[in-house]
Design brief:
The chain is of the alpha+beta class. The protein has 2 domains: 273 residues, 4-Layer Sandwich (Purple Acid Phosphatase, chain A, domain 2); 136 residues, Immunoglobulin-like, CATH 2.60.40. It has 6 helices and 25 strands.
Length: 454
């Protein structure tokens, strides 16, 4: 590989807390006006508080917080998920290759195979009320309970590759508007992916970056999916934060209903069960997975919250061996960086990196550092023109940090900086173009990796 830089159940009865009402109002504040999609917006200066709301309130069994998830064969499988405020009894997705129009629905249907209550931790009573009798407890001592919410996952199979699929969500007769997504091609590399991580804080900037993702898809019909590098929110055990992230994620939906499937990664702030409930993953055995984007592109997702050795190392060795040299492009994504621009390296580096080198991985996608970086090509811990380039490190809304540009792998061809960004990956049979796109749509870095001759 040569490297060249071209830059110049039943519903619970609860009180509705003041904080919940505030959060609900926040959803309206961060919504998007359809006029935003008419032209390229100036997102950096956009006052999101003035936007007209188009978010879907969590109310009753109205489907909201929709997403399409890819963790397997993206040519023929997808999980379509959503949230309701009440448990409901029947949850079904209607889908097909032809639009059902405004009042109709696509021809095929699938009832959700998994429905449940998100793992919500209710607040404890105020310490000021500890030891008091019930008659002594004041209103201020009684905690505001968090309203429940329910997830629904419909696992769709036997899809056709490189095909647009329309879908409508329905829970107890309450229906969503019509959406659509496109499956991956069975072969070939004529498509684009968007990657980014660390959306966890800075809610206004997170909303702006969601609009940037939507703009990337609007301006380039070849954008196929969005890979998230982890740290969706600050505290993974708090449903209140996940609720806000999921509602703001609706901003990545295009005005015409196009949804970008998400390829999820677990970050260090994503502790608890909700991450697995949001993305329909088994907590014990789906912390790492491979998404096949046809026979020519593979995205291997790892978990830097789990030990690098043992089961994960065994799986990674076997998986990379299986994929090489069959796939044209072999990518890995995970949260904590192996060659960081801010922090120290992940503890898994001594295990993962030799395997990346052994099987000639083409690109490593990293997050966690809250910055931008592209390393020189690295093999065996040294700069090598046939080595692996590591890019990252997360700019989907979190505050950015100052980088240490003096590190050897960021000099003499490497690069580091700080700004909100997404990474755009344009695939071709002969090369992979990697660009850092900033909030204002400009390009911070643009480089190309040539395909290995394996």
């Amino acid at each position: 590989m040569n490297y060249r830089d071209t830059t110049n159940s039943n519903c619970l009865t609860t009180k509705i807390p003041t904080t919940w009402i505030f959060t609900a109002l926040t959803f309206f504040i961060f919504a998007v006006n359809s006029a935003l999609f008419a032209t390229e917006p100036s997102l950096e200066n956009l006052d999101v508080r003035t936007l007209v709301s188009r978010m879907t309130p969590l109310k009753g069994t109205t489907p909201a917080q929709w997403r399409v998830v890819w963790t397997g064969d993206a040519t023929s499988e997808a999980t379509i998920s959503w949230t309701t405020a009440e448990a409901g009894k029947k949850h079904v997705v209607y889908y097909g290759t032809k639009s059902g129009g405004r009042s109709g629905k696509p021809a095929l249907s699938q009832q959700c195979q998994s429905n449940g209550l998100y793992s919500i931790i209710q607040p404890n009573a105020s310490k000021n009320g500890a030891g008091k009798g019930s008659e002594q407890t004041t209103k201020n001592d009684v905690p505001n309970l968090i309203a429940p919410a329910y997830y629904h996952h419909a696992r769709i199979t036997q899809l056709e590759p490189n095909t647009r699929y329309y879908f409508v969500l329905e829970s107890d007769g309450q229906r969503s508007r019509e959406f659509y997504f496109r499956t991956a091609p069975s072969e070939g590399t004529d498509f684009t992916l968007i990657h980014g991580g660390d959306s966890r804080s800075g809610h206004a900037d997170r909303s702006r970056m969601n609009l940037r993702i939507a703009q990337q898809a609007k301006s380039n019909p070849k954008v196929l999916a969005f890979a998230h590098g982890g740290d969706y929110i600050v505290s993974g055990t708090k449903w209140e934060q996940w609720r806000l992230w999921l509602s703001q994620h609706e901003l990545t939906t295009l005005e015409d209903g196009r949804v970008l499937p998400i390829i999820p990664t677990k970050g260090n702030h994503d502790a608890g069960k909700i991450y697995f409930e949001v993305f329909d993953l088994e907590e014990n055995d789906e912390r790492w997975h491979t998404t096949m984007l046809g026979k020519d592109v593979a995205m291997v997702t790892l978990d830097t919250n789990s030990p690098g050795g043992g089961p994960q190392a065994d799986w990674l060795d076997a998986e990379l061996s299986r994929l090489r040299p069959k796939v044209r492009w072999l990518l890995v994504q995970y949260h904590r960086p192996m060659y960081p621009a801010v922090k120290g390296p992940a503890t898994q580096a001594s295990i993962f990196c030799p395997l990346f080198d052994k099987y000639n991985v083409d690109l490593a996608l990293e997050s966690d550092g809250h910055c931008m970086k592209r390393t020189v090509p690295i093999r065996n811990g040294k700069k090598d023109s046939l080595g692996l380039v590591y890019v990252g490190e997360g700019g989907l809304g979190v505050g950015q940090r100052k980088t240490d540009s003096g590190r050897w792998y960021l000099q003499d061809g490497g690069k580091a900086g700080s700004a909100h960004h997404v990474i755009r990956l344009d695939f071709d049979s002969d090369d992979l173009r990697v660009r850092f796109i900033l909030m204002d749509g400009s390009t911070w870095d643009d480089h190309t990796i040539e395909a290995r001759n394996l």
